[in-house]
Give the backbone structure.
Amino acid sequence: MLNSYPQALLGLDLVGVFAFALSGGLVGVRKGLDIFGVLVLACVTALGGGVVRDVVLDVPPVGLTDWRLVLAAVLAGLVAFGYAHVVQRLSKLVLTFDAVGLATFAIAGTVKALSLDAPALEAVLVGLMTAVGGGMIRDVLAGVVPEVLRTQLYAVPALAGSALLVVLTSLEVTGPLPSVACAAFVFTVRMAALRWRWSAPRPPRSIP
C-alpha cells in the first residue's frame, strides 16, 4: 500500500482546483455567461474530476465536503469574471495553469486510489478521470466538443504520468518525490505538446 500524505494531497488538490477553476471560469466569460454561470463552470471544471474520482473509489466526495477546495474554486472563478480582460491577454499563462491542473489532478487521483489499495489499472484510470473529468463536464455544459478530444496531447500525458507512478509504487519507490516527479513529467509533456503542436494520430482523411 502507498503511504498516505494528507497534507500533500490537499496541496495538490488546491493547486489543481485553482488552476482548473480559472480556465473553466474563462470559458464561461468567453461564452458570455453571467457571474453565476461563470462560477458554475469554474466549480464544475475544478471539482468535477475529484467528485468522479471519489464516487468511483466509494469515499465521500472531498470536493463537496472540504470548504477549502470550494473556496479556491470560487475565488478563481471570481478572478476570471472580474479580470477576464487581463486573463485573456495572458492566454499562455492560462494554458500553463491548465497544464498544472492536469498534472496535479492526475497524480493526486492516482495517489488517492493507491492509498485505498486500488488495483493498478483502476488507479491509473482514476488518475485519468480526475484529470480530465471536470473539463469534459465543463465543455458539455458550454456546448462545445470536449477539449480532451480535439486538442494537442491532453489525456495521454495524464494517463502516462499516472501509469508511471503506479509502476514506481509497484517497485516500492514511495514517498512525495515520485509523485512530484510524475506530476512534473505530465506538465512537461503537456507544455511540449502545446509548444510543438503534438497530437494523437488521426485518420488520414475525414469521412464526408
